[in-house]
TrEMBL record:
Molecular function GO terms recorded: chromatin binding
Residue ranges of every copy of the CCAAT-binding factor domain listed in the record: 550-703
Sections of the chain in a coiled coil: 445-481
Source species taxonomy: Eukaryota, Metazoa, Chordata, Craniata, Vertebrata
Organism name: Pleuronectes platessa (European plaice)
Ranges annotated as biased composition (Acidic residues): 173-190
GO annotation, cellular component aspect: nucleolus
Protein name as annotated: Nucleolar complex protein 3 homolog
Length: 794
């Protein structure tokens, strides 16, 4: 009879073809999981059964006599025994019956004995147990090996020579090794007994040995990378150093050594993986050796980066791994070394593989609570932005920063956004630039056509074609690609800034955003101007901003209006008034770094836009800046006076302020915050007279120069070292951040002595002799003024 057919319908071959590989793989995984679950249940049941049997065997039974009886049962038993007749059974029979009952009873029998209950006399008489008859050790004869030597020949004939040698078994060798092991195990005990000085000396010896080993392997790899690429794996294995005495130091040394090795042997191009077709092609030995070297280098570099990343993760998650040879406190120093190695590789190998992976690891560490780690990463990315000439690394970094800002809901440190100020973006591809750079067809008019002969027209056409080809060769593709990358990078940067302006105006990131907008304002597209100006104006008028934030807003507005925004019909009078109102609040009690932003704003407001500035406004700013120069540090005074000098050169009629005569009607209103209506033309620059007595020599020089009308030539003109520098440069050159005078103050002159010094200091020898006699006299003699002096006869 045939076996019953399964009711489950088997899928056809066509249906199997339609089934996807993912579905088949999932089915296989489900089947394996079911089998594993069934096996696990069976193992659990068997374990429970073995445990129950073990408990039953180990449980010792308690004899019946040990149980306590009730007092009523004891009295009844005694009365029953007293009523029994004692003369019916003899004592010997009674003892024999009791013994037989004990042997036959399961309850009263001693369960500790393993012998049979009804054992015969023959078995019970055996005194020697069976396991005693088993020999303690197997009798073994030594195996001998016969070695045949050279034979000896004598008169009788050839005599063969042999030697027997005992063969040592593996067990004897293992026993010898086991005897050696306790000796080796005794060494740590001796180490524990060492003093602290001896232990430190032993540790230094171990570290020196490891250093020599690392140096040998590193020098071998650097000398011949293609042949010794496998040494990188050995070096990387030392990152798992298990000796707790030197584990931390050795791992740090290996991390730094591998970093230097990869910086030295990494090629100047990106290594791509080979395709299946390329692997199948037969190549030369040199090419095959180069491929093997590149493949090994990429794999070891990848594993090294993974080790560094894992070290940082273990430190962040407070995990204690690797056989607990490294403490959690030591993991912090290991993590710092790992971060430093990643930063070095980020700067040294921006063209090599896995550069974007390094960026992904380091960007979140810019927002790390540990200041040392955060500053290290921020400095690395600043250098990367400054050294990036193509723009690919900058674009990858800005993308990751944008994702970090969005994922953390704008809860990041301002230093993360300030690193974007180091981006080297000078030009981008704007919409009007695209239209301007579109190729335009040149057509010759009829006069030019008639003036040229047929041959000349041919030459003209060939010449234009050749010029076009030369222009295509000169305009390299790298420049176009660079502009494209810079455009995309700047779009992401502005996206970050605009998101914060829209959703997080009250966050600590706003100053960094305003500073970034002021830095890149000349690259903003025209379509964002109206909305951005409205937002900045609302921020300034709110009154909640600090001086620095308000200055950044004003700088952004005027940078936009000085560049592409000059086509817009916008009157920035509100921003002029706001800056004029802020000037008295930038005194020496406020941060001195705000003055440099003020100087940049003044350069944009009064110098670059001088055609849109009235004379009244310019004179009002000159008067208030002169007043402010009395209340700031000397380097700020130099910068403000230099700004006044540039303004007076741009507006020559401002020399009214150097005259006592009143121009027009009205009085000067210094407390009025409107520069157009404060009547600045009716006052004079009295502050210059006070500044000419300033302790700083450069301030005195500028004050004297301005009081004479700021001439470019003549005795009152400034020197070349001062006249050719901008106000910002002068502010930085004479900075006093180190709390020292710049330039240093000259020491005071020495006082004159109260008496004459010994020596021939007088021209008249006779007078000198009398002076010496008077100085050498021991007792003071009374001078006789009545005596007449006889004239000397010649």
């Amino acid at each position: 009879m045939a076996p019953p057919r399964s009711k489950k319908v088997r899928p056809s071959f066509r249906r199997l073809l339609k089934t996807s590989d993912v579905k088949l793989e999932n089915k296989l995984k489900n089947r394996q999981m079911k089998q594993q679950n069934v096996a696990k249940k069976q193992r659990k049941e068997q374990k429970k059964l073995r445990q129950a049997v073990k408990e039953a065997v180990l449980r010792t039974p308690r004899p019946l006599e040990t149980y306590k009886k009730r007092p009523e049962e004891e009295e009844d038993e005694e009365e029953f025994l007293e009523t029994l007749p004692t003369d019916m059974i003899e004592d010997e029979d009674m003892q024999q019956m009791t013994a037989m009952a004990r042997q036959a009873s399961f309850i009263t029998r001693d369960l500790s004995s393993c012998g049979p209950v009804h054992g015969g006399k023959k078995r019970s008489s055996e005194v020697v147990h069976s396991y005693e008859k088993v020999p303690r050790k197997m009798v073994r004869t030594e195996e001998k090996e016969i070695i045949h030597l050279l034979p000896i020949k004598d008169k009788t004939g050839v005599i063969p020579q042999t030697v027997e040698r005992v063969i040592k078994h593996q067990e004897q060798e293992e026993a010898a090794e086991e005897q050696e092991e306790p000796e080796n195990e005794g060494e740590p005990e001796s180490v524990v007994e060492l003093t602290a000085e001896q232990m430190e000396l032993l540790r230094a010896q171990k570290i020196n040995q490891k250093k020599l080993l690392i140096a040998n392997m590193a020098s071998a790899v650097i000398s011949d990378p293609s042949s010794n690429i496998k040494r990188l794996k050995e070096l990387r294995g030392m990152l798992m150093e298990s000796d707790p005495c030197v584990a931390v130091t050795v791992r740090k040394l290996v991390m730094v050594s591998l970093m230097e090795i990869f910086k030295d042997i990494a090629p100047t191009y990106r290594i791509r993986p080979l395709t299946a077709e390329e692997k199948g092609v037969k190549v030369k030995k040199e090419t095959q050796r180069l491929r093997e070297f590149e493949e090994g280098l990429v794999s070891q570099y990848k594993f090294y980066l993974e080790d560094l990343e894992q070290t940082i993760k273990d430190w962040k998650q407070q995990k204690k791994k690797r056989s607990q040879v490294v403490s959690l406190q030591s993991y912090q120093s290991l993590a710092h070394v790992s971060v430093r190695c990643l930063c070095e590789l980020l700067l040294a190998l921006p063209h090599f593989n896995f550069h974007n992976n390094i960026v992904v690891v380091l960007v979140p560490l810019m927002n790390d609570p540990a200041k040392q780690v955060s500053d290290m990463c921020c400095d690395a990315f600043r250098k990367l932005f400054q050294e990036d000439k193509l723009g690919g690394a900058s674009l990858a970094t800005v993308r990751v920063v944008s994702g970090l800002v969005k994922s953390l809901n704008y809860n990041i440190r301002p230093e993360v956004l300030r690193t974007l100020l180091s981006l080297r973006i000078q030009e981008i591809q704007m919409k009007k630039d695209v239209e301007a750079t579109a190729p335009k067809k040149k057509f010759m008019n009829n006069k030019e056509k008639k003036s040229l002969s047929r041959m000349k027209r041919k030459w003209k056409k060939a010449e234009e074609k050749l010029e076009k080809e030369l222009m295509e060769v000169e305009a390299s593709e790298s420049k176009e690609n660079k502009i494209k990358l810079h455009t995309e990078t700047l779009n992401i940067v502005f996206l970050i800034y605009f998101r914060i302006l829209k959703k997080a105006q009250g966050s600590v990131l706003l100053p960094a955003v305003l500073e970034g907008l002021a830095n890149f304002a000349h690259l903003i597209n025209l379509e964002f101007f109206d909305d951005l100006l409205n937002v900045l104006q609302n921020l300034i008028q709110s009154g909640d901003r600090t001086n620095r934030e308000s200055l950044h807003c004003i700088q952004t507005v005027f940078t936009i209006l000085s560049g592409q925004g000059d086509v817009l019909n916008i009157d920035p009078l509100t921003f002029y008034s706001q800056l004029y109102w802020m000037l008295p609040r930038l005194h020496a009690g406020a941060p001195n770094d705000d003055i440099i932003i003020l100087l940049r704003c003044l350069d944009t407001l009064l110098i670059r836009r001088r055609k849109q500035v009235t004379l009244q406004r310019a004179m009002a700013f000159i008067k208030r800046l002169s007043t402010l120069s009395l209340h700031v540090l000397p380097n700020a005074s130099v910068g403000l006076l230099a700004a006044n000098r540039a303004t007076m050169h741009s507006f020559p009629k401002c020399d009214f302020l150097l005259d006592n005569e009143v121009q027009g009607s009205g009085f000067y209103l210094p407390e009025l915050d409107e520069p157009e209506h404060c009547n600045a033309q009716n006052t004079a620059l009295w502050e210059l007279h006070t500044l000419q007595r300033h302790y700083h020599p450069v301030v005195r020089q500028f004050a004297a120069h301005l009081s004479r009308g700021a001439p470019s030539e003549g005795s009152a003109a400034l020197g070349m070292e001062l006249s050719r520098r901008s106000p910002v440069e002068l502010f930085e050159d004479y900075n006093v951040k180190d709390m020292t005078f710049n330039p240093p103050v000259a020491p005071p002159r020495t006082k004159k002595k109260d008496r004459f010094t010994h020596g021939a200091t007088l021209l008249d020898a006779e007078l000198q002799r009398r002076v010496n006699e008077a100085l050498d006299a021991k007792e003071e003699t009374q001078l006789d003024f009545t005596a007449t002096q006889t004239p000397s006869q010649h």
